[in-house]
Amino acid sequence: MSTPSLRERDARVIAEIGRLRFSPLSLVGGRGNRLIEEGGREVLDLSGSAGPAALGYGHPAMVEAVERAVRDMAGASLLLYPNEPAVSLAERLLAVTPGSGERRVWFGHSGSDANDCTVRVLAAVTGRSRFISFIGSYHGNLSGSMGISGHTAMTHTLPRPGVLLLPYPDPFRPKFSAEDVLALLDYQFETTCPPDQVAAVFIEPLMSDGGLIVPPHGFLKALQDRCRRHGIKIVVDEVKVGLARSGRMHCFEHEGLEPDLVVFGKGLGGGLPLSAVVGPAEIMDHAPAFALQTTAGNPVATAAGGAVLKTIEREGLVERSARIGKLFSDGLRALAEKHEIIGDVRGRGLAVGVDLVADRGTRDPVPATTTAKIIYRGYQLGAAFTYVGLKANVLEFMPPLTLTDDEAAEGVAIVDRAIEDVLAGKVADADVASFMMW
Ligand SMILES: Cc1ncc(COP(=O)(O)O)c(/C=N/[C@@H]2CCCCNC2=O)c1O
């Protein structure tokens, strides 16, 4: 009787509702920017595990911080007892996040719970029940955060009553220009969405799961100006593209936004479950016992967060993300000269998307099976990456911020070969049938 593979065992015990699988990759380890597959093969990680692995895997700063914190554990619950790692991280987060006045930090475990908490506390504090968000946005998978999201993969759950979902202007497919969207918002304010009923607008400064869309310059600022006029709070969701990934410390800095609240997650914990909301004390001190999670802000996860922020500074990861991101994007853009299927290469820093088109003229997206096959072939060739987009046609690259020049070049070469092989028919529909999940 042969020993079942990790994937076979996974199939027997892990719930399908918690899966979003893009390849057969099953992991027994990770070192640096490489994942270790069952059987020992090393796979270059261009996914960052969907973003959290900001420092890759086994980074000495993470190992040292987490080991120290778990060996001498300062309790396991910030809601009961202040602990040094959590308070130190909150102090550092406030120091590196632009803003004015008295501010506070709320800790959670995920981007989902952080946005969920933000929705609830803003509705309570403002007494306003409406929210504005965007078609294609992904703010989380809990009822509150999903309720203000607009991703097509989440249509199984109805949006929160009173949410206004606006189109997110996409320069590559300008179905709605920035001016169209702002005009639509103004019209909504005049008619069915009274601005004095709107608590906040939730903004991804770079729309990730909706297709790695960089909004037209000036759009977000114009949106912010309108909201300011009506006392609508600005919430920037930096969960996926924040903390150095975009080539700035905060992605919202590219557009000169001045958010009222900033939501962090994913990379903040370096792979440990950690999120944070930074906001004004008059909101975040609304009431005791309003947004409780027993282990949120625990000393181990927050020690990891401290190591992430320290390493971003010590290793100059903001500049690195900008530099390596340009190298990587330029390499992918150069592939467009030989692959008609590459319609657009876009993003900021090390948040990179490759928009795959069936026709460069019409910019119609390729079928999702094509995208899935390229990812599958990339896996076979030794790299892990994923896809996003409302038509499942955008290759998503969110590698560790520690990606090296050589690894960027290696990644480009693998994407090049994967496209070639798929277009040559080397991957069958059956190979990807079980990976077409969103
Ligand atoms: C901008 C933004 N905000 C919040 C979230 C939710 O974060 P969690 O998945 O840590 O709860 C996410 C999560 N995004 C999804 C998670 C599901 C798998 C697909 N890839 C993502 O990055 C996000 O991108």
Automatic annotation (TrEMBL):
Keywords: Aminotransferase, Pyridoxal phosphate, Transferase. This is Aspartate aminotransferase family protein. One of its GO terms (molecular function) is transaminase activity. Belongs to the class-III pyridoxal-phosphate-dependent aminotransferase family. InterPro entries: Aminotrans_3, Aminotrans_3_PPA_site, PyrdxlP-dep_Trfase, PyrdxlP-dep_Trfase_major, PyrdxlP-dep_Trfase_small. The lineage of its organism: Bacteria, Pseudomonadati, Pseudomonadota, Alphaproteobacteria, Hyphomicrobiales. Its cofactor is pyridoxal 5'-phosphate. CDD domains: OAT_like (cd00610). It comes from the Bacteria.
